[in-house]
Amino acid sequence: MTSMAASSSQSFCSLIPRTVLLVSVLVFLFPSQPEALKSPFSPIDMLSLLPRQVSWPILNYLNNADDLLPTFVGAVSSPDKSIQWQGACFDKNTAWLEFHNNSGSEFGGGTLHIKASNAHSWTCMDLYIFATPYRVTWDYYFFSREHTLEFTEWEGKQEFEYVKEAGVSIFLLQAGVLRTLQALFDVLPLFANSDWGEQSNVKFLENHMGTTFKERRPPWTTSVNVDDIHSGDFLALSKFRGPWGAFETLQKWVTGSFAGHSAVCLRDSEGNLWVAESGRGTGVEDDIIDVLPWDEWWNYELNNDSSNPHIAFLPLHPDLRAKLNETAAWEYVRSMVGKPYGYHNLIFSWIDTNHGNYPPPLDAHLVASAMTIWTQVRPTLAANLWNEALNIRLGTKGLDLPEILVEVEKHGSSFGELLAIPEQDDWIYADGKSASCVAFILEMYKAAGLFGPLSSSIQVTEFTIKDAYTLNFFENNSSRLPKWCNGGDDVKLPYCQILGKYRMYLPGYNSIEPYQHMNERLEEWYKSIPHSLKGRLAHGMKKGKAVAYKGCPNSEPEEAF
Ligand SMILES: *[C@@H]1O[C@H](CO)[C@@H](O)[C@H](O)[C@H]1NC(C)=O
Ligand SMILES: *[C@@H]1O[C@H](CO)[C@@H](O)[C@H](O)[C@H]1NC(C)=O
Ligand SMILES: *[C@@H]1O[C@H](CO)[C@@H](O)[C@H](O)[C@H]1NC(C)=O
Ligand SMILES: *[C@@H]1O[C@H](CO)[C@@H](O)[C@H](O)[C@H]1NC(C)=O
Ligand SMILES: *[C@@H]1O[C@H](CO)[C@@H](O)[C@H](O)[C@H]1NC(C)=O
């Protein structure tokens, strides 16, 4: 619920004036007494009130990287099953959950009680994150007493059932990361599969991409005539809810792209229309490459896709359509069906590999914190999404996130540097190679001859979705667009938006002539990899391949991916 998140940040603001006097006195004591942890006034307590640029280096100096991550203390699901733990500030803490129906809604809500006592010092506080797969919130406790956290209304049956079964997860954080937490809270809600999550995604993009989301004129669904759809026509998708929504939001923001997913249309020899897609399934964990009849695909997007999909239809230019070899396209697609979607490198695809850093407010610590929380709440998602990919980068096997952090530090490197190692085309995961949604489509275009003689000098795995829709491959004569294009919307886009409440803008659409080695960032990134990790990178790859990559291959990879 939005109301809950808002009340947390309000109370955070009101904390500052109360303690600001103490801070100004105590901060000066800090350099001379870093060991004064158990005195009535602990200067370290004050770190949380300093600006992040000041507090963060100090915290890093006093702690190992994994100490700064949120610690899972337990989950509460009923009043009979209370949990106890020792906090950073309060020695004795007890929590339990009580269901209620104050809202008079179908599934009611709940109150989480936390009783905190035996503080280490007068100025310390404990900082907590509370999470279900449907919401995340945080609070801090400064006084010894019973505190409550209100869940006015569960999101629906799914959250209600989840909480009854698995409970609300509680994470303890070092008080010093309070400032970091505010930044984290820009990112965490994105993953929630709820209205709140959707609004968070929109708000995040508005704030960080400086864009506004314009609502289209309803109806938000177009009745398409499939006769106007041909082989090679591109489908750009944008999702706003759940794990897909979150990854897409981060990817959109980092790549400056307004689409986060893609699929392609294909007709068989009998003229039936199909959609080929890398990333088909019930939600990230089990997504594969698949090809579905158009009606089945479109019905799913209209009625069953809970991520609130937005879809734009980008018809291929007639000249290219004439060039497209359907037999070759099908051969390629059939060879890929059933292989896993590129979820292993999902996270890494939106990290700015050239510079090894993130636009604010993200940083490596935030990524690690978010990973810790979602590892607890969505374990299979976590295992698939990052554990294996991080292990490969580090040249290790089977380490979990805290172990990875320890290992990275042992090598004098940082988690940020580890994240910055880009995905290699030939890394093989336990379930096989991964192919991203757009690499899959462009590889099909290539097989079908759309890149012509350039084919051998184009490395499509280096393309983002934006790189794909900015290619000048699409219809450029608006009078040839299908009649149903853009439905009843009053703004006429140069492509057809066929689904979605918000208008999809694709800046640079249909503008770039392909050229040799376009979008090849390989050489550049290899140079940019921190020296300390180059050896590890080579170790994580097959030996011969590592040498080849140093020279930056300008030939085709032996296999498609
Ligand atoms: C809460 O109260 C409303 C209205 O009285 C009722 O319809 C609903 O079933 C109740 N929900 C629960 C979970 O008890
Ligand atoms: C998809 O949604 C329709 C309409 O809401 C529903 O009848 C159908 O059972 C759903 N199918 C699946 C596979 O969930
Ligand atoms: C189309 O592709 C198939 C299979 O790769 C090939 O046998 C055929 O010669 C191609 N057709 C044309 C016109 O290039
Ligand atoms: C559309 O593209 C074709 C071929 O690329 C070009 O010859 C033509 O001038 C373009 N038309 C418009 C209206 O831009
Ligand atoms: C656009 O297409 C229409 C209809 O096919 C045609 O009459 C017109 O000449 C085309 N315009 C350009 C600039 O190619």
Automatic annotation (TrEMBL):
<keyword id="KW-0732">Signal</keyword>
<feature type="signal peptide">
    <location>
        <begin position="1"/>
        <end position="36"/>
    </location>
</feature>
<protein>
    <recommendedName>
        <fullName>Inositol-1,4,5-trisphosphate 5-phosphatase 4</fullName>
    </recommendedName>
</protein>
